[in-house]
Amino acid sequence: MATPQKATMKLTQEPEIVTWPETHYVFVEKIGPFQNTAPQAWQEVHPLVPRISEHNKVTGYMSLYKVGPKIYRAGVAVAAEPKNLPESLKYEKFKGGKYSRFVLTGSYANLPEASGRVFEIVSEKKIQMRDDYCIENYKNDPRTTPEDQLVTEILIPTV
Q: Whole-prediction pTM value?
């Protein structure tokens, strides 16, 4: 009996250098192992998006994370400094900067493996990271986009 082959992960292997713009960011922050904190943070953020949208223009979904201290932020970018946020949310004007961008196409379930591979590539290519947040930028809406067509940018802060 043949064993099912795991689908090949569609991840770019060559980083593209990009400049991430300054971003108004509204988020929930969790500290601890990402396999626990990431789902918890998103479960808190998603139900609050309609309330955020009442007074603010949501321009995108993204997470910011630091691997060293295991800080995970799930949230949304908004067009301007936010007004009337639910109390459980934090706000920061994220300064942005220079990043090495990798692109994953496919299921969010591939993100842990894709992120692991990105950090391997960073190490192999001796890309110098600066002390800042890594970004996962979710380019399309999982409610309306087929899972195999989801696009996530994984951005590593570079010197």
A: 0.92
